[in-house]
Amino acid sequence: MTSPPPSGPGRPGSQTALRRRNRQTVVHALLANGPATQAELARQTGLSNATVSNIVKELAQEGLAVTEPTTSSGRRALSVRLQGTRAVAAGFDVGRRHLRVVLATVGYEVLAEDAIALPIGHSAEDGLDAAAAMLDKLVDKAGIERRAVIGAGVGLPGPIERERGTVLDGAILPAWIGTNVPKAFGERLGLEVLVDNDANLGAMAEIAWGERQDATELIFVKVGTGIGAGLVIGGKLHYGALGTAGEIGHTTVDPQGPFCRCGNRGCLETLASTSTMIESLAPSTTGPVSTADIVRRGLEGDSATLRVIDDAGFVLGRVMASLANFVNPQVIVVGGPLAALGDAFLDPIRRGLVRHAVPVVGETTQIVVSSLGDRAEALGAASLVLQHAGLNSSLRSLLDDKAVDGLTARHV
């Protein structure tokens, strides 16, 4: 019988190598999913509770992680998060009228954030200039070195060709169509750049930053100038063949309805977007109407505004019903600026869902507003960087070789 080869410290089968792999697995989970209890880490990694507990103790002793008392399922538990500001992710949310940027640590703590208005129809060059200026401003505000930024995530409204990161036809930003975002942003910022649709990033943020960390079947619906959905199925984002899954804004609701920018008639966006709501309210007002005005007047109980909100919400619920019938989600999270309306917006959405969904789906699907407000997409963009942290070799020197050496890309 042949004797097994010796298991020295550097050999794959040694106990040292096994402990190292287990440690890397735990760090991976914390980078990918954000703070978690030790029990959640055990479920995420497949390691035993005892193994996770020992690794967490080591990370805490070395100053790489922090534990805090919390409750989980009504029981006392320890929440674990990575710490340190030597490795920071930048998240950019570029909209039709705005730019929001956040800087977040590997422990999913926001160091700095800001938002500015952008002109409607802005070019990719204008957006890049604004993004670069805001990044420099926030780095100074956070008191960190520029080299601490390990990468940037960028969220854009509309379909993104996932393989190359190119903005496709149908985007809310027509001047950006054809732009290779990773290349353009990468050259301008001097960083590795990842890009995704803003609704996908909203869904990612709800799981990594929000109150839905346990959800494995979730739909995030972003309602703004455009309408899109991010789909979490089996605990992972679902992209489809090209990366355009969730473009519900161009679902035909009324075949004889208004012309849509996509070339069809009666798409959801022509009936329920913020732009359509603004147009509907224009005849009843004496001045220009903004999305903020819709929220304010809706909360004040203005009858005309509430009617427009009700009509839009019911149509949204009807389309969500079809999506829910296919996906059967645990929860649908409504994001975007109208989420601030709360039940004034959710109630008609619920009615539309219950009216048009399979009864058991309509009765069991929870509909809530995002707990992250208008920060969701930028936070999701930052977490996109953290989840792919192994792609950036500089993370090893900025965090700690012992914690992250050997990390490889982890795609969601």
Automatic annotation (TrEMBL):
Protein name stated in the entry: ArsR family transcriptional regulator
Gene Ontology MF, one: DNA-binding transcription factor activity
Family under the similarity heading: Belongs to the ROK (NagC/XylR) family.
InterPro entries: ArsR-like_HTH, ATPase_NBD, HTH_MarR-typ, ROK, ROK_cs, WH-like_DNA-bd_sf, WH_DNA-bd_sf
Source organism of this protein record: Luteipulveratus mongoliensis
Superkingdom to which the source organism belongs: Bacteria
HTH marR-type domain span: 26-76
